[in-house]
Every structure is written in structure tokens, then in C-alpha cells.
Design a protein that fits this description.
Catalyzes the formation of aromatic C18 estrogens from C19 androgens. This protein has 518 residues and is of the alpha+beta class. The protein has 20 helices and eleven strands.
Length: 518
């Protein structure tokens, strides 16, 4: 009987505790929602001078994006009705001022305002607090320490390595050149750019194009990057997933952690192997006497004015950042350029003739050849205009910002730059959807705002690796055109979709034939 009374008392106490927890949880949720509603009303008032397309009271504009390949054009269409900039809502509480005109983007890109703490926050478990997402003094210090890694003398030896990686990919394409069927090239190019960055930035010959990845592009790191990119997009679009604990408990959160582990094990192995190799060498001069310096050498040996280097955590964040940024964005740029040339055979042939002349009988590009292919370079730029690898970016203001027309946005505002929107803006570009590389003749470029074409961003936070990327795009495009004739597959038009980089829902398909058959 005494035991029964004790159990009864414990049960009642437990019930009361659970009841109190439920009440406190409910109160917390109500207070949280009330705070968000107050904040929402503040943003509605703050952005009232920037009208935007009609929105749903709960979903905002999220349901307007169908993920069907037409979402990018929808933003351009909205821009026609709302010049310069307009507000967009993701769910009931997140608003972004979307900029799509050079005169507006000039103001935001000229600043050192940090990346936003919403979408970029979702990247931190993967790529850490590296150059892409860091801000303030940390970003400034890291940028200064990393800049020597992209010096002319460091980039020059990379061209041969890029050429070798491109040749490996093109050799694999021999089987496709004997078929009348099209093939998907983005995965091939991703493996090739991963191979390149491993050789160039980390002096590591992984043979990932022929071992582990092979013909199907199933390299574990590439798969992890694809999955992480998709999951970051899912998390941004799903409002409850903005909560850390809800996302972590979800199936998507589990997949994200699993893919992060794959990516991190890849970079940790690279760092571990290099540290072992460098344990007796701490000075760049002594390392350079033995071989060409690479990005990782400079990262590990970097010192500031106080002779302080980067922490192990910072080194991994920068390696993770450059590993992703240096292969995936470039893969997007190359893939869409090859597709653009497949759709425009007349420009393709002009490029091919130029490349054959520059190479003088050779099959692979060298450093000196990069400046000998101006028309091919203009075609690459035109493809970057139509299909920017990074279609948008976002900053969070630390102070109020006033634009050239006098309109002001307050501190804390999220300002998104639609690179795709700027590049397709009909008030900036004549016939913006047409492929016309002559837009980039020096005399034509001089007539435009320098902020009309920003595939690598602009200003103090521009892409630190843009010369690396442009060099690789020139090498790969030139060697591809020297060897193959590209034609589009009209039955498999790509459906553009913005992930962290610009991809296609159904892949990017082309047909190829050896040049000597034409």
C-alpha cells in the first residue's frame, strides 16, 4: 500500500512537471511568434518604398518558385515591373530587398558589408567560417593572408596541370564522339575541375577522373557536394528548417550531417598529408626551392604582422571553401559555356579557328596562349553573362544604406543581388537573351557600367579566385574546341535551377564529333 502511494505521488509530480513544461513551452512559442510579428511589421514599413510582386500572407513568394527550370526567368520578369529593386518574402517573416540593376548593385558591392546570416549560416557546418561567409576583421585578415595564393607566379604553373586534367576528360569523351546520342557533361566537367583543383591547389594526384569517379561521375566528394547544395536550398525554402534543432532532428538534417562528414574527411586527409610532408619545412622559400608553391603551402605557412598563422579550424574552413568554390563554380561556368557554343555553331567555329592558330599544332594550352584567344574569351564572358555560375548573393547591412535615387534601407536589412537579373536586364543589355560575344569588345564594354557584368562579384569582397577560374575556363574550352565539334540536343534542353551554383534539373546534354570529321 505504501509503495502504491509512493508511485501515485511520483506520477502526479511527473504529470505536474510535464504540465508546467508544456505551459512554459507554449508561452515561449507565443512570445517568439509575437516578436517575429513585430519584426515583420517593422520590415513592411521599412521596405514600403520598394514595392514588390503580390505575396501570400504565410508563404510569401516561396510558392511562386516551382523548381521547374523557369524560376530564374520569373525574377527577371518581376524586375520589368519593379525597376532597380523590389522586396521578396520567404515565408511570413523573412524579407529580402532584391537588386537587379548596376546602379543599385554598385552601392552594396562597394561596401564590405558581411554576407547575410540566414542562407550563408546554413553553409557554416559544411565549409566553416571561411572567406565566403566570414565578416569584419576576421574576413579582412584572412583575405590578406590568402591573397598571395593567387599571385601571378603561383597561378602560372597551374595552366599545365589544368591542361592535363582537361586532356584526361577529353580522352574519356572518345566513346561519346563515336555515338549519335547526346551525353550529360556537367558531371564529367565536375570531376575534371576537382582533379584540377587537387593538382593545382593541393599538389595531389587523385586520378579521380579515372579511379573512383570514372565514367559515371560517382566520386564520393562530388556526390556529397551535390547533396549538400540541394539540402542548403531545401533548408532555405522550408521555414521550420531555419530552426537549428528542427533541422537537426529531421531526415534532411541527418543527410546533411552525413554528407558533411564525407566532405570533411576528404579535406582533412589533404591537410593531414601536407602537414606530414611539411613537418620539417616551415619557410615558403625553402619549399619553393624544391617545387612550385600551391594554395595549401601558402595557407599553412601564412603569417600576419605579429607572426601569427591561421588556426587548424581556420585552415580547414579555407580548404573546404576553396575546394567547393574552386571546382563547383568553375564546373558550372565551363559546362554552360560548352552548351552555349553547341547552340551557336558560327561562334564555335570562330573560336576553334582562333584556338588552332594560337596553339600552332599543339594539343594543349600553355600560359602564353591564354592571351592569344580574345574571341574565345569574349564567348566565355557572354556565357557567364547568360548563365552566371553564382546566380545571386546576399548581404546583411550593419548600418543604413542609401542608394543613388535617395531611397534608404535600415540596418539589419537583407540585400540580395540577383546577378542573373542584372545580366538579363533589358534596360542594361540590348536583346539580353541573345548570345552575342561582341558585347565584350573593349569599345562596347567601355559604354556600360562596370557593375553590369559581375559574375565574380565586384568591390572589396569580389571573388579571390577569379583569375584561377578564368584561366581554367579558357584552357578547357580551347582544348575541347580543338578536338571536338559540339552540337546541342534539341530534345534535352537544360532547365536552369539555382542551387549554390547554377545547375540544370535535367543535366546539360550535348553531342560531340571529332573535329577532323568535319
Amino acid at each position: 500500500m505504501e509503495l502504491f502511494e509512493t508511485l501515485k505521488k511520483v506520477t502526479l509530480d511527473s504529470y505536474r512537471i510535464h504540465h508546467l513544461v508544456a505551459i512554459f513551452s507554449l508561452v515561449y512559442v507565443i512570445l517568439k511568434i509575437s516578436k517575429l510579428i513585430v519584426k515583420r511589421n517593422e520590415w513592411i514599413r521599412a521596405l514600403e518604398t520598394f514595392p514588390g510582386p503580390p505575396k501570400h500572407w504565410l508563404f510569401g513568394h516561396v510558392r511562386e518558385f516551382k523548381q521547374d527550370g523557369n524560376d530564374m526567368y520569373k525574377v527577371v520578369k518581376w524586375g520589368e515591373s519593379y525597376p532597380l529593386a523590389f522586396q521578396m518574402w520567404f515565408g511570413p517573416f523573412v524579407s529580402i530587398l532584391n537588386i537587379h540593376h548596376p546602379d543599385y548593385v554598385k552601392t552594396i558591392l562597394a561596401s564590405t558589408e558581411p554576407k547575410d546570416d540566414l542562407s550563408y549560416r546554413f553553409l557554416i557546418p559544411w565549409i566553416g567560417d571561411g572567406l565566403l561567409v566570414s565578416g569584419g576583421q576576421k574576413w579582412f585578415r584572412h583575405r590578406r593572408l590568402l591573397t598571395p595564393g593567387f599571385h601571378y607566379d603561383v597561378l602560372k604553373p597551374y595552366v599545365k596541370m589544368m591542361a592535363d586534367s582537361a586532356k584526361t576528360m577529353l580522352d574519356k569523351w572518345e566513346t561519346h564522339s563515336k555515338s549519335d546520342e547526346s551525353f550529360e557533361l556537367f558531371e564529367h566537367v565536375s570531376l575534371m575541375t576537382l582533379d584540377s583543383i587537387m593538382k593545382c591547389a593541393f599538389s595531389s594526384n587523385t586520378n579521380c577522373q579515372t579511379v573512383g569517379g570514372g565514367e559515371s561521375g560517382t566520386n564520393s566528394y562530388i556526390k556529397a557536394v551535390y547533396e549538400l547544395s540541394d539540402l542548403v536550398n531545401v533548408r532555405f525554402r522550408t521555414f521550420p528548417y531555419h530552426s537549428e534543432w528542427i533541422f537537426q532532428l529531421s531526415p534532411h538534417g541527418y543527410k546533411y550531417r552525413k554528407a558533411c562528414n564525407v566532405a570533411h574527411s576528404h579535406t582533412e586527409e589533404i591537410i593531414r598529408n601536407r602537414k606530414e610532408a611539411l613537418k620539417d619545412e616551415k619557410e615558403l622559400g625553402r619549399i619553393q626551392a624544391k617545387r612550385n608553391l600551391d594554395f595549401l603551402d601558402i595557407l599553412l605557412c601564412a603569417r600576419d604582422e605579429d607572426q601569427q598563422g591561421l588556426s587548424d579550424e581556420a585552415i580547414r574552413a579555407e580548404v573546404d571553401t576553396f575546394m567547393f568554390e574552386g571546382h563547383d563554380t568553375t564546373a558550372s561556368g565551363i559546362s554552360w559555356t560548352l552548351y552555349s557554343l553547341a547552340c551557336n555553331p558560327e561562334h564555335q567555329q570562330i573560336c576553334r579557328d582562333e584556338v588552332i592558330s594560337a596553339l600552332e599544332g599543339r594539343d594543349t594550352m600553355e600560359w602564353e596562349d591564354l592571351s592569344k584567344i580574345p574571341y574565345t574569351t569574349m564567348c566565355i564572358k557572354e556565357s557567364l553573362r547568360l548563365y552566371p555560375p553564382v546566380p545571386g548573393m546576399s548581404r546583411k547591412l550593419t548600418k543604413p544604406m542609401t542608394f543613388f535615387d535617395g531611397r534608404t534601407v535600415p540596418k539589419g536589412c537583407l540585400v540580395g543581388t540577383s546577378i542573373f537579373g542584372i545580366h538579363r536586364n533589358a534596360t542594361v543589355w540590348e536583346n539580353p537573351n541573345a548570345f552575342d560575344p561582341l558585347r565584350f569588345l573593349p569599345k562596347n564594354s567601355a559604354k556600360r557600367s562596370p557593375h553590369a557584368f559581375v559574375p565574380f562579384s565586384a568591390g572589396p569582397r569580389n571573388c579571390i579566385g577569379q583569375n584561377f577560374a578564368m584561366n581554367e575556363m579558357k584552357v578547357v574550352v580551347a582544348q575541347t574546341l580543338k578536338r571536338y565539334q559540339l552540337t546541342e540536343d534539341p530534345t534535352k534542353k537544360p532547365k536552369m535551377i539555382p542551387r549554390l551554383v547554377l545547375r540544370s534539373l535535367n543535366g546539360i546534354h550535348v553531342k560531340i564529333k571529332p573535329v577532323d570529321l568535319y
